[in-house]
Amino acid sequence: IEAVGLAVSASTEKSAAVRIACIEGRLTVSARSSLGHWAEGIVEAVDIPACEPFSVNGKFLLQALDRMAGEQVELVVIDPASAIRVEAGDELRQLIMPLRV
User: Fold this and answer.
1) What gap in Å lies between CA 73 and CA 9, rounded to an integer?
2) Helix H segments across the chain?
3) For residues 65 and 54, what is the distance between their CA atoms, to the nearest angstrom?
4) Residue 90 backbone dihedrals phi, psi, to 5 degrees
């Protein structure tokens, strides 16, 4: 939540677009400000696999994460053009559509 919030606060686009990139053990959430600077939040964990970068509406992602119970959340990403599934155990599942930026 902190990493996404940091990037969303810097995003000046109407869509609050944030870019998510994953490499083994690290998830980076970034957004560009109106001055051309990048803000990024980083989440490090051993169970983060590599994936192709994708973009989503950061506000929608924050809302989805805010409704999740527990400390661990899983983002299920098939490819950058498919819906991203947000899960926390068996309780709640949400879908977020990706953005083309």
Assistant:
1) 21
2) 2-10, 58-66
3) 17
4) -100, 5
